[in-house]
Amino acid sequence: MAADTELTPTSYIDHHLTHLTTQVGGDGGFWTLHVDTLVTSIILGIISLGFLWLVVRKATPGVPSKRQAFVELTVEFIDSQVKNTFHGERHSFVAPMALTIFVWVLMMNAMDILPIDIMAWIYEHVFGLHNWRTVPTTDVNTTFALALSVWLLMLFFNVKVKGIGGWSYELFCTPFGKNPIMWPLNLLFNFIEYVSKPLSHSLRLFGNIYAGEIIFLLIGMWAATGVTGTLFGTLLGAGWAIFHILIVTLQAFIFMMLTVVYISMAHESH
Length: 270
Hints:
- This protein is mainly alpha-helical.
- Helix content is 73%, strand content 2%.
């Protein structure tokens, strides 16, 4: 933060959790864009998928390099998970989609491991950006956009695989039978299911990563209280960062698996 700004718990947290925004159409515009979220997400997408592309492009049939072995293990792991979950005919689409989601979400989550105060200093003193949130998945707009994209794909495959008639039949006749009396109840039940999927899909990822960010901020505030606080804050921060590596990986895996499950459900008839 700026040197002339008095550091308080409120100002410290607000500083780290405030987005760099811009309004489409100027002041009073309809859309407010989170520039930090958009820029970081795009850069991480280019880096992660570009890295995979370069490794695959340079892959050799002989003894693989460490990078090639790492990518091969990741691809094989995701492919085996998709095979165990998805039993439709579009495995050639679902598996690459799952790999893309896993790697991209993992990279966005992993930004939470970077030292938050050091990154804030770099943004402000190197790039002149007073507010910049480093972790895209601590922005609910990011997680909801990803979940909504999966939800739209799920609707697309429901119609493509079952046809409008088959999908409409499921909406009105499952799970309580095709008696016309049960149609309103079936429709209400399916409506709640369709609405809850993108909400739970997005909020699960957002909540876990956002909570991890808050814990890092609380540890950082403790580290600023003095020598003792700095010592314990450093130890706790290192311990939480190591544990958080598991969290960011697990949340990327869960988001990817739920995506595969939802697409698989769209291919199944009830």
